[in-house]
Amino acid sequence: MADITRRLGWRHLRSAPTAHIRHHKRGVLTHDGPGLSFWYRSLSAALSEVPVDDRELAMAFHARTADFQDVTVQATVTYRISDPAEAAARLDFSVDPDTGAWRGAPLEQIATLLTETAQQHTLDVLARTPLATALVDGVAAVRERVATGLAAEPRLPATGIDVVAVRVVAIRPEAEVERALRTPAREQIQQEADRSVYERRAVAVERERTIAENELASKIELARREEQLVDQRGTNARREAEEQSAADGVRAAAEAARTVRLARAEAEAARDIGAARAEAQAAWLQAHADVDPGTLHALAATRLAENLPRIDSLTLSPDVLTGLLARLGRPEPEARA
Predict the structure, then answer these.
(1) Of 113, 246, 278, 311, whose CB count within 10 A is highest?
(2) How many CA atoms lie within 13 A of 309 on its CB side?
(3) Of 116, 1, 79, 86, nearest in space to 47 by CA
(4) Strands of 3-7's sheet, edge to edge?
(5) pTM above 0.70, yes or no
(6) Where are the beta strands (DSSP E) in 101-243?
(7) What distance in Å separates the CA atoms of residue 70 and residue 13, rounded to the nearest whole number?
(8) H or E element that contains 69
C-alpha cells in the first residue's frame, strides 16, 4: 500500500519499487510507473496501484480419482503482473486518494481465477487416474498439466498476468484410506522387523552356543591340564620319595659303616688298653713279687689311708697297738705309769 501524507489540502504519494502507480487527472494519465513520488489533489486524482512483484498463491482443493476416491491436492502457483496497464484496465486496482487502500479486492480475483483454472486441470487429470497411480505419479502429472493449462489460459495474458512457476506439494487421500493403504506396507515393514529380530535372536543363540562350547572346551582343557598336573605331582612325589629313600639308605649305610668303624676302633683301643693294663699290672706285680710282705702291708695301709676319709683323731687301745706293732715287727711300747 502506498504511503500518503497530507499538506494543506494537497496529498503526497510515495510508492514502493514493487508497486506500479497510475495517476489520472481529469481523465489524463499524468504519472505511470513503479516507485513514484508526487503531489496531487484528492478531488481530481484517480489512482491505481498494481503490484509487480512475484507473488505466491497457495491453494488446496479436493478431487476424485478414477476409482471414486477423494483426494486433497496441495499446490502453489507463483505469478506476477507483467502488464500493469492491462491489469488495471481489467481489474479494480484503484486506491483511495486519502488513505491509499484498495477500494476493491483485485488480488482475491486473481487468486480465484488461478485457483479455479488450476483446479479444473487437476480434476481433469485425476478423474482418469486410479488412486494408487495418482499417489505414485500424480504429483508430476498434475504439475505438468496445471502449468500447461495456465500457460494456455487466454484470460491470464489478457489480464496482464504471467505464471512464473507451478509446484504441487502433495496429493493425499482421506485419513481412513491413507491408513488402509499404509497397512500393507506397515505389515511388510513389521514382518521385516520381526524377521530381523528373529535373525538377531538366532545369531545371539548361535553366539551363545559358540561361547558355551568354547567355555566347555576351556573347562575340558583345564581339567586335562589339571590331570596332567596331578600326574606330574605324583611322579614328582614318587621321585622325591625314591630319592629320599636312596639318600636315607646311603645315609644309614654310612652311619652303620661309621658305627662299625667306631666299634672296631673302640674294641681295638679297649684291647690295647687292656693289654697295657695287663702289662702294667704284670709289671706292678712283678715289681712287688720280691718285696717283703710287711712292706706290702704298709703300702696297702698307705693306699688305704689315702682313700679313707679324713680322720682328725684316732684312739687306739693297747691291744690293737700291740697287735699292729707285732705285725710290723717292732717292739711293744712301754706302758706308762
Answers:
(1) 113
(2) 0
(3) 1
(4) 3-7, 10-14, 37-40
(5) no
(6) 161-173
(7) 50
(8) none
Name the one residue in this structure whose C-alpha cell is 489533489.
41
Q: Which residue has the cell 674294641?
A: 267
- Write the pLDDT tens digit of every residue in 60-105: 989 999 988 899 999 999 999 999 999 988 888 988 888 888 888 9
- Nine cell digits for residue 193: 522387523
pLDDT digits (tens, 9 = 90+) for 26-39: 888 898 889 888 88
Question: From the CA atom positions of the chain, what is the Rg in Å?
Answer: 75
Contacts of 281 (CB under 8 A, 6+ apart): none
Cα→Cα distances 63→59, 96, 172, 315, Å:
13, 40, 10, 173
For residue range 288-301, what is the model confidence (pLDDT) as tens digits? 666 677 776 777 77
Lookup: cell for 98 = 486519502
**What residue type is 143 in one-letter code?**
R
For 31-37, the CB contacts below 8 A with 24+ separation are 32/85, 37/12, 37/13
Q: Which amino acid is at 98?
A: D
